Amino acid sequence: MPTSAITKHEISLEYLGIIGGLQHYQLTPEKLQEITLKKDLGVVTRNGTLAINTGAFTGRSPKDRFIVKDEITKDTVWWGDINIPFDSKQFDKLYGKMVSYLSQKELYVRDAFACAEKKYQTSIRFITDYPWSNLFVYNMFIEPTENELEVFDPEWTVINAPEFMASPEKDGTRQHNFSIINFTRKVVLIGGSGYTGEIKKGIFSALNFLLPKNHHVMPMHCSANVGKDDDTAIFFGLSGTGKTTLSADPNRRLIGDDEHGWTPENTIFNFEGGCYAKVLNLSKEKEPEIFEAIKEGALLENVILQKDGSVDFTNDSITQNTRVSYPINFIKNFQKPSIGENPKNIFFLTADAFGVLPPISKLTPEQAAYHFISGYTAKVAGTEEGINEPTPSFSACFGAPFMPLHPTEYAEMLSEKIKINNVNVWLVNTGWTAGPYGTGHRMKLTYTRAMINAALNGSLNNLGNEDYMKDPFFHLSVPKKCEGVPSYILDPQETWEDKNAYQKKATQLVEAFKANFKKFESYASKEIMAGGPY
User: How would DSSP label each residue in 106-152?
Assistant: First the structure.
């Protein structure tokens, strides 16, 4: 697709097929907020933060995310329920309808980069018909300098039109909303949904294909921070496992909270220029860094305001997925640039509601690959009285909805990097102890922090073999002692009053792991298979 020559303040989108109208280029956050308020598309909270409502969609719609099947993708993408194929001719027709719809409209155009590491940086042009969608882009991506803007040549284009509705019968979509990635045309189309997460996840999904294929960079759905000795730590974890909380450490600098790459040069870099955090039940006491980042310039989504204009963070009447986006420099203790070297420790966080997995265990490279592919956590079946049976939840690579390649390709890359760089990998259970949900209780955050600190400062790694025990069900290496944690806490079986009940529940979880992994067995190597329970 051709690109356009631009100056700092002028932009034409005719090369895309968008004719006429008014295009606002590279507006400041203040101006975007002003326009949003003037158009009655949002409100301001008591402390000056813009709050908007994303409409019918308050989260991603995974069944409406497609990848165009063509010469680039047909033999490389792992097609299925996650990566749903879309016909290239249908894409071209839908693209034509969409740019025709946007012609003659007032639009907001922003040029930005993804990837903090210059060598792997991708230039992107975002076209949105909501001013607050453009503010989200400003918050979440890397803003070019004035000199970079003068010569900016967008490699990718994202077109975002929440009010454009597809016709499933004519356009080949499942319903009126859609997010479609075209690797040949280097275009992401997003329509029918105002949820801003579709914008960042569209680019994340594209990079998860391009970086490993073209550059042998390992893309990761994780947070990362760096210590005083410049050692980098990586935190994988699904929703509710404590990823954001545990990586926001006052003694370590935050690289990023969600999306990173691991280069052949052994550096870790943030894909983004900002953070997109959940805010339900947020408090200054529990997560002060995020709480203090919610200020003028940030963008709140789907929250409820109280009479005095302050946010009621406990109110989930619109959605439990209330969010805020803000530039990473709103976090006081952040790494600049968002790049870390010397990765030493990886943490796989899981909230095991079965109460079976040890609170911390050290993984071999084979076990790391197996648990990475599994991407396990657990969801509580219900919160009403009498329902206390947890449900296993698996998301390959701790981010299956965003991974175009087969999970084993990412797992083999991770395993290779772990071996080459002698990185320690830890499985951390932030979930239940002393029994399953309904009987036991959630692991104390102070204990989890103590265990992670012990891994980071090397004290767990310096223990001798005699100071580790083998978990009998998952064959994990579990430390017998850790400063700041009672020794009996480290052995999950010791925390249960009914040992037979523990063994029964552990066997149940082992079988859930095995059943989930069956779909990967024909792809996984013998080494990866050896990393699981048996």
Answer: EEEEEEEEE-SSGGG-EEEEEEESSHHHHHHHHHHSBPPPHHHHHT-
Is the N-terminal amide bond of 337 cis, ω within 30° of 0? Answer: yes
Give the whole-number percent of the chain exceeding pLDDT 70.
96
Q: Which pLDDT band holds residue 524 (cuts at 50, 70, 90)?
A: confident
Give yes or no for residue 381 having a pLDDT over 50. no
Which residue type sits at 321?
Answer: N
- 449 in catalytic set: no
Distance CA 19, CA 353 (A): 55
Using alpha carbons, list the distances in angstroms from residue 193 to 53, 57, 64, 163, 502: 11, 6, 10, 7, 45
Residue from 45, 49, 58, 60 carrying the catalytic annotation: 60
Q: Give the tens place of pLDDT for each residue, 139-165.
A: 999 999 999 999 999 999 999 999 999
Dihedral of CA atoms 32, 35, 36, 39 in degrees, nearest 10, equals -160
* Active-site pick, 221, 260, 362, 505: 221
- Catalytic site includes residue 110: no
Summarize the confidence of residues 224-243 as an average pLDDT: 93
Write down the catalytic residue from 3, 4, 12, 239: 239
Distance CA 263, CA 217 (A): 5
For 98-113, what is each residue's pLDDT tens digit?
Answer: 999 999 999 999 999 9
**The residue type at 224:** A
498 has catalytic annotation: no
Assess whether 371 carries a catalytic annotation.
no
Q: Looking at residue 525, what is its pLDDT? A: 86
To the query of whether residue 504 is one of the catalytic residues in this protein, the response is no
Task: Phi first, then psi: give them for residue 374, nearest 5 degrees.
Answer: -70, -45
Q: What is the C-alpha separation between 159 and 179, in angstroms, rounded?
A: 10
Given the residues 24, 65, 243, 260, the one annotated as active site: 243
Annotated active-site residue in 49, 232, 244, 448: 244
Identify whether 323 is a catalytic site residue: yes
For residue 258, indicate whether it is catalytic: yes
pTM above the 0.90 mark? yes
Active site includes 221? yes
Catalytic residue among 201, 252, 362, 406: 201
